Amino acid sequence: MIIREILTIKGGDIFAIKPDQLVSEAVAVMVEHDVGSLIVRQDGTMVGLLTERDVLRGLNVRGCALIAVKVSEMMVTEPIIGNPDDTVDYVRGVMTENRISHLPVMEGETLLGVISFHDVARACLNAADFENRLLKRYIKHWPE
C-alpha cells in the first residue's frame, strides 16, 4: 500500500492555522476537529507544522503562559515530508526513526494532506488482516 491510498481512504481534509495566531487558537482548532496536528500556512503556503507534542513541549517550558504565544514560536518550520508514492512500510520506518506522529504529504509544491501514525498503523493492520484471510483461504483449499 502507498500513502496516496491512505489519503484517498482518509479524505483530504487539511486543518490549518496562520503563524501569527495564538497557540490557544490552535489548540481550540485541534480539539474541535479531533486532530493532532495543524498545517501552518502563510498566504496559502505551508510554512510549518504544529503538533500536540509541540504544544506539550511548550507547556512544559512556558506553563500557562503558553496560551498567549504565537504559533510561529512553537511550530516546526521544516517538518519531514512524505511523498504520495512512498510505501506504508517506508513511512512507518521514517515516522518511528524520527519519533514523529504526523507527516505532511506533498506532491511537488502541492500539499495533499497529513497522515498520522494512527493512519499508518490502521493501514498496516488492514493489510495484515487481508493477507491472513488469503492465507487461511489458501490453506483451507490445500490439495490433498
Highlighted features:
alpha+beta; 5 helices; CBS-domain; three-stranded mixed β-sheet; 19% strand; 144 residues
- Our count of domains comes out at 1
Q: Do you know the CATH topology? A: CBS-domain
Largest sheet: 3 strands, mixed
Structural class: alpha+beta
The CATH class designation is Alpha Beta
Strand order of the largest sheet: 1-2-3
**Which shape, going by the Cα principal axes?**
elongated
Mean pLDDT, all residues: 88
- Low-confidence parts lasting 5 or more residues at pLDDT below 50? none
Q: Return the CATH architecture.
A: Roll
| Cα-based radius of gyration, to the nearest Å | 18 Å
Quote the distance from N terminus to C terminus.
Answer: 34 Å
What would you give as the CATH superfamily?
Answer: CBS-domain
Organism: Sulfuriferula plumbiphila
Keywords: CBS domain
Pfam family, one: CBS
Protein name: CBS domain-containing protein
Describe the structure.
- The chain has 144 residues and is α+β, with helices and mostly antiparallel strands.
- It has a single domain, classed as CBS-domain.
- 45% of the residues lie in helices and 19% in strands.
- The chain is built from five helices and five strands.
- The strands form two sheets. The chain has a three-stranded mixed β-sheet.
- Helix 4 (88-98) crosses helix 5.
- The longest helix is centred in the C-terminal third of the chain and has 24 residues, at 117-140.
- The radius of gyration is 18 Å and the shape is elongated.
- Keywords: CBS domain.
